[in-house]
C-alpha cells in the first residue's frame, strides 16, 4: 500500500503515517497540496495530511485542496507535537531560524524571546528545514527530534512550542468509503447563500434538532469576495446513519453547494 | 494624533492608515502583535491592523491579541491588494523570494509556477522584505508598488496575486467607543461551553430570531485542547441598538465568556 505524505523523511507527517499504517510504503511529496491530491492523481492508494493544529489553527492549503479533490477522507490521526530546536552549531551561533510556517507559528513567543534578532525563514516542511540546516552551523531548524537524528543535527532545546498542549490532527484520504463503525465522524464543506440572513443558523438547525453533535466549524475564504466563505463542518456520525442521512438530505436544499468530504472512524479526542 | 501600524514605511498597512486618517502621525511598529497592543500600552492614540484577507483568510496573531487587549475596535477599512514582484536585479537573477506570510500565501500559485526552485523566506512585513531586497540582486520582494519606490527596487511584475479579487480588511483600535451611526457593525469574541451539543446553534439563534445579520464567523484555537475554540463573530448593528443590546444580554448567560470587541461604522463591502 502506497501512502503519500509531506516529505522529505523526518516530518511530523511521517510519525502520523507510521501510526496510521505501520507497514505502508511511504511516498514523500514536495508539499502539502501535492500530498492532498496524491490519491486523486493516482500516485498513491492513501495519503495523510495535517488539517488543524491546536495552537496555530487550520491548515488553509489543505482545506482549499479538499474542495477540489474527489477522494474521500477515510480516517484521522491525532499526534502530540513536541517541537525541537536543532542545529549543527551551538546556541550562541544561531543567526537564522528555519521551519515550516506552522512550526514557526507554534514557537512564535519562544523565538521572539530567545532569538529576537534572528532572521526567520520558511520551508515547505519541518524536515526540509532540518536538511537545510545540515549545511550551515549558524542555522537552526525547528521540527521533531526524529529529523535531528536523520540529518545529523544536535537537539539544542526540546519542547519549545509556546503552549504545552500542542496537537495536530491529520486526515487520511483514500479510494474507498469506510463502512459505519458506530464511532464515526463526517466532514462536510458547504457554501451558503451569503445574502440570506440567518442562513448559517438555519443550516445548523438541521443538526441541532436531530441532536447531531458538531465538533468543528471553520470558515475559509471563497476567494471570490471579501466576506464570502466556505464552511467546513465536522459532525459526529456516519453519512449512512439514518439521522445524519436525513439531515444531509434536508441541507442540500438549503445551500448552494454541499460536499461530503468523508465519513470515517473518529480518533479519540486528544 | 498618533496612529500605530506595522512598519517599516511602505506596508499595505500604511496605505490603509492614510486612507483612515490622512493627517495622522504614523508610528511604525515591529510586528502586528505590537501594533495591535499599541493603544493599550499607551504608545499610540489609535492603531490600524489587518484582520482578514479575501484569499488567505484570517490574521491569527491579531485575533489572538484582540482577546487580551482592552482598547475597543473603533472602525474598519477595506483595501484592494495588488501584489508586486520587485528587485534590484532582473527576473532571471531571482533565487530568493521574500515577503510576509500573507503576501507569500496570496501569490502561492504564481511562485510555484514561475519560480519553482526559488527559496522562499518570510519577514515581519512586506516593506521589511523590500528593504532587505535592496541589498541582494538575487532576492525579490513581494509587496505594494509604493515600497518598491521607497526602497529603490524595480517593479518586475505587477498584480501577481493568484486571485484578482484580493482585499484586506483592517480594523482600527482606539480609546473611545464610537456612537451609533445607523450603519454599524459589532465584533464579538465568544467562548462557548464545548461539551454542550448545539451550543453554537443556540447562541446564533439569539441573532436569528431578532433578524440581526451575521457577516462573519471565524474560529480560533483556544490553545488549551484540540477541538476547543473561540468564535469571532461580526454582526450588523451597534451594541447600543435595542435589538442587539437585548441579544448580547441574553447571550451572556449562554456562554462562558463574551467579549464585545467594539461597535463601529461599517466600511462599504468590497
TrEMBL record, chains A, B:
Entries under CDD domains matching the protein: ACT_CM-PDT (cd04905), PBP2_Sa-PDT_like (cd13633)
One GO cellular component term: cytoplasm
Record-annotated Prephenate dehydratase domain positions: 2-175
Gene3D superfamilies per record: 3.30.70.260, Periplasmic binding protein-like II
One Gene Ontology term from the biological process aspect of the record: L-phenylalanine biosynthetic process
EC number: 4.2.1.51
InterPro entries in the record: ACT-like_dom_sf, ACT_dom, Preph_deHydtase, Preph_deHydtase_CS
Record-given protein name: prephenate dehydratase
Species for this entry: Methanocella paludicola (strain DSM 17711 / JCM 13418 / NBRC 101707 / SANAE)
Name of the encoding gene: pheA
Amino acid at each position: 500500500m502506497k501512502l503519500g505524505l509531506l516529505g522529505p523523511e523526518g516530518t511530523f507527517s511521517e510519525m502520523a503515517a507510521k501510526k496510521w499504517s505501520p507497514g505502508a510504503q511511504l511516498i514523500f511529496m514536495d508539499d502539502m497540496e501535492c500530498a492532498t491530491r496524491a490519491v486523486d492523481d493516482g500516485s498513491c492508494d492513501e495519503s495523510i495530511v495535517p488539517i488543524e493544529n491546536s495552537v496555530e489553527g487550520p491548515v488553509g492549503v489543505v482545506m482549499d485542496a479538499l474542495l477540489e479533490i474527489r477522494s474521500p477522507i477515510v480516517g484521522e490521526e491525532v499526534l502530540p507535537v513536541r517541537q525541537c530546536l536543532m542545529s549543527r552549531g551551538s546556541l550562541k551561533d544561531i543567526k537564522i531560524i528555519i521551519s515550516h510556517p506552522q512550526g514557526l507559528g507554534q514557537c512564535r513567543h519562544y523565538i521572539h524571546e530567545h532569538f529576537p534578532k534572528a532572521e526567520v525563514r520558511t520551508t515547505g516542511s519541518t524536515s526540509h528545514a532540518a536538511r537545510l540546516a545540515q549545511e550551515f552551523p549558524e542555522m537552526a531548524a525547528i521540527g521533531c527530534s526524529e529529523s535531528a537524528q536523520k540529518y545529523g543535527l544536535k537537539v539544542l532545546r526540546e519542547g519549545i512550542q509556546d503552549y504545552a498542549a500542542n496537537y495536530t490532527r491529520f486526515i487520511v484520504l483514500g479510494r474507498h468509503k469506510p463502512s459505519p463503525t458506530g464511532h464515526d465522524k463526517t466532514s462536510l464543506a458547504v457554501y451558503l447563500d451569503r445574502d440570506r440572513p440567518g442562513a448559517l443558523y438555519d443550516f445548523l438547525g438541521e443538526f441541532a434538532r436531530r441532536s447531531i453533535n458538531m465538533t468543528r466549524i471553520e470558515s475559509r475564504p471563497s476567494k471570490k469576495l471579501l466576506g464570502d466563505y466556505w464552511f467546513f463542518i465536522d459532525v459526529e456520525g456516519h453519512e449512512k446513519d439514518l439521522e445524519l442521512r436525513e439531515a444531509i438530505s434536508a441541507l442540500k436544499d438549503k445551500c448552494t453547494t454541499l460536499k461530503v468530504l468523508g465519513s470515517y472512524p473518529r480518533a479519540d479526542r486528544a
